[in-house]
Amino acid sequence: MIRSLLYVPASEPRFIEKAHTRGADAVILDLEDAVAPSRKAAARDALAESVAQAGQSGAVVYVRINAELELRFLDAEAACRAGAAGLMVAKAAAAAELAELAGRIEPIERKLGRAPMEFIPLIEDPAALLDARAIAVAPRIVALALGGEDFATATGAVPTPETLRLPKLLLHYAAKAAGLRSYGLLRSVADFRDIEGMIAAAREARAFGFDGASCIHPAVVPILNEAFAPSEEELAWARKVIEADAAAKREGKGAYMVDGRFVDAPIVERARRVLAAAR
Fold first, then answer.
1. pLDDT for 264
2. Buried b (16+ CB within 10 A) or exposed e, 71-88
3. How far apart are alpha carbons 1 and 212 in whole angstroms?
4. Torsion region of 91: left, alpha or beta (phi above 0 gives left; psi -120 to 50 gives alpha)
5. Residue 260 CB partners (closer than 8 Å, separation 6+)
6. Which of 74-88, 191-205, 234-248 has the lowest average pLDDT?
7. Pick from 75, 86, 61: nearest CA to 32
8. What is the crossing angle of helices 232-250 and 265-278, to 10°?
9. Window from 126-140, 202-216, 234-248 with minimum mean pLDDT
């Protein structure tokens, strides 16, 4: 269960050194927008040490790779050799390019004897959004996420909660239709100082069924961890539903009441998922 994904510039050792202390379920070492062009090669070479450093407390480590072809494969190979769990594929545009990326790193994985890397495509333009269901079934995809700032730029929009709401929900539904995880808030994450807004947005995203979200500042990590995890109240409800379901089955009932509310199969499945998330 990944609730929080913390972006860390792969060119900044002082941030990488502290990344494992921030409590994030996943750390994203960013080789793309957070790294100046003149520093990308050095940041890529440093992955050999920074991946292990960022993950030393148990966080899953992803690497966000550049979109340009001359950098994408170099970034992916370095991340693979460094032991990263997966790739955040910036500006993913088509299933074919993801399949090609998988084909390029598969021989390296086989030679290293390591597990296959996961891919999380970042959808950042309207064409890719409209093709999201095709992208979702490409090899190795485990989740989808929308790059809100880039998407707004590509569409000529201002990245407000109102303008990002529809594209983020459309991508969320594409992810769920393919059985994938879905990451994001229904707003931009750039204004991390708006703590109350972040809390409200995280709770809203959880209510819509998002699995977690990324952030660019460690202050947001505990907000995401709390919002995307079941509360004690939810756990108590889920246990009560499962107990009532077991009793109903013994009595041959298909539907019944719990705390004055009607319960049937979809609600029982929701309760099971709450308990599974807690585990």
1. 76
2. bbbbbbbbbbbbbbbbbb
3. 9
4. left
5. none
6. 234-248
7. 75
8. 130
9. 234-248
Question: What are the backbone angles phi and psi of residue 6, rounded to the nearest 5°?
Answer: -100, 120
Closest CA to 6 of 149, 216, 201: 216
Which one, of 236, 237, 229, lies nearest residue 260 by Cα? 237
Residue 89, both tokens? 């594929």
Q: What residues pair up with 143 in beta bridges, in sequence order?
A: 181
CA–CA distance from 213 to each of 94, 158, 220 (Å)?
23, 20, 10
| One-letter identity of residue 137 | V
Give, for 119, the enclosing helix (H) or strand (E).
strand 118-123
Sequence-distant (6+) residues with CB within 8 A of 200 are: none
Q: How far apart are the C-alpha atoms of 244 and 74, rounded to whole Å?
A: 55
